[in-house]
Amino acid sequence: MHFSAYIQMHKPFYILIFCLFICTALYSQTNKALFVAIDKYPLNSGWNEIHATNDYKLVLPMLKSNGYKENDITVVLNDEDT
Fold first, then answer.
1. Which CA distances in Å does 58 have to 17, 35, 52, 63, 81?
2. Which of 1, 31, 45, 69 has its CA at a distance of 20 to 30 angstroms from the CA of residue 59?
3. What is the model's pTM?
């Protein structure tokens, strides 16, 4: 029996295995988020102060409402980046 005939004969089995693999991969994914909010820069850096910490307060509830768990959201604010 040729290899192509063998594959053709067992095609439903291989399709089933492939579908099971895809379903397992899709359901085992975890959403993770990294939010970096820096709004205080050194005076001589050339950057104006912005309001990134206000953005953080708006984005965090949105992430949670889209399925992100509290433990999977990492937030870096201002001086926490160094």
1. 43, 12, 10, 9, 20
2. 45
3. 0.54
